[in-house]
Every structure is written in structure tokens, then in C-alpha cells.
Amino acid sequence: MNDEIESVLITKEELSERITQLGQQIYDDYIDEPIFALCILRGSFMFFADLVRNIGKPVEVAFLHAASYFEGTESSGHVEIDKHMVDVSGKNLIIIEDIIDSGRTLAALIEHFKELNPNSIKVCTLLDKPERRVVPIDVDYVGFEVPDEFVVGYGLDYDQKYRNLPFIGILKREIYS
Ligand code: IMP
Ligand code: MG
Known about the structure:
- It is a single chain.
- This protein is α/β, with parallel strands linked by helices.
- The protein has one domain (13-147): Rossmann fold (3-Layer(aba) Sandwich).
- Helix content is 24%, strand content 36%.
- It has four helices and nine strands, in the order E-H-E-H-E-E-E-H-E-E-E-E-H.
- A six-stranded mixed β-sheet has the order 4-3-2-5-6-7, sandwiched between helices. The protein has a three-stranded antiparallel β-sheet with strand order 1-9-8.
- A hairpin with a 2-residue loop joins strand 3 (59-71) and strand 4 (74-81).
- The model has no long low-confidence stretch (mean pLDDT 94).
- Bound molecules: inosinic acid and magnesium ion (MG).
- Residues 40, 43, 98 line the site of magnesium ion.
- Inosinic acid is lined by residues 43, 68, 75, 97-105, 150-152, 156.
């Protein structure tokens, strides 16, 4: 698996250090408010588990599947959200994503949840690829900005592979071209 990685972009230690800071920042911002953290599956599962452990107060957790359909490494723009029961009404919702690319997935999620009357909505993403944005998104918490490369590991996949790598790496182009 590792020989399919061009280079390590963010090490395990860098991830851990940054996620500790993000957890502290969220704790400080919600000092008097309850938190409802929503994990967008599958890519965010590892980030989510580490992040909530770094928020030093009770956090309600929920999980939702969202899939943006890909042709290779290009998202097709088609986003499907599993709209099962996540009751966000009156909650301080924080949507936790793995990566924002075009912004279409988050735009669809925000539009969906706004109608369900949460008290507030914020967005937290581990990675952001701002160069690729098609739909503008207000992001409240960003772990790292990354270049326009296809990255895998720490939850992120290519064709359902590499999610269990403990770091973020750039995938060799020969794997997908
Ligand atoms: P968006 O809707 O284009 O913003 O795409 C967001 C989704 O595409 C993310 O939640 C990921 O699942 C996937 N994605 C985008 N870029 C990458 C990448 O570099 N590696 C792995 N998945 C990616
Ligand atoms: Mg995803």
C-alpha cells in the first residue's frame, strides 16, 4: 500500500498536533453551548474520532453517509445524502468533513440541514483544497490547506483503498491515470 504513495504530505504527528488545536478552539468557541458534531461518512471517521476526543466537554455525536460520485479523481457533481433521522432541530450543529474540493457536498449538506432548524451551523474540515472550489463555502475550522493533488489516508480513499493509512499522502498518478 505504501509503495503507491508518492510522498507523505501530513505526518501522523502533524495531524495529531493540529487536531489538538482544533479541539481546543472548538471548546473555547462553545464554552457555554452544547455541541452536536456530525461525522460525514466515510471519509471523516478517523478525523472525527480524534477531534471529539480533543474537545474537553460533552459532545453529542451523529453519523451520516454522503457520497459524491467520482469519475476517477474528478467529482461528477452528483451528491447523494442519506437523509435518515438526524434530528438537528435546536442543536448547535458542527458538520465534520474530511476534505472540501468543489464544495458541492457541503453546499448540499448545508442546504439540507438549514431546513431542519438547527440553532446554528458550523463547518469543520480536516483538509481544504481552495484552488478547486466551484461553490463558495464558509468554512469555520480548517485543519490544513492542501494543494490540488489527490490525497489519501487518515480516512480518505481512492476507490475505497488507503483509508487506514495513519498519515495523509499524495497518491502516485500512475494509480489513477
Ligand atoms: P466536493 O463535493 O467536490 O467538495 O468533494 C468532497 C468529497 O470528495 C470529499 O468528502 C471526499 O470524499 C472526496 N474528495 C475530494 N478530493 C479528494 C481527495 O483528494 N482525496 C480523497 N477524496 C477526495
Ligand atoms: Mg467524503
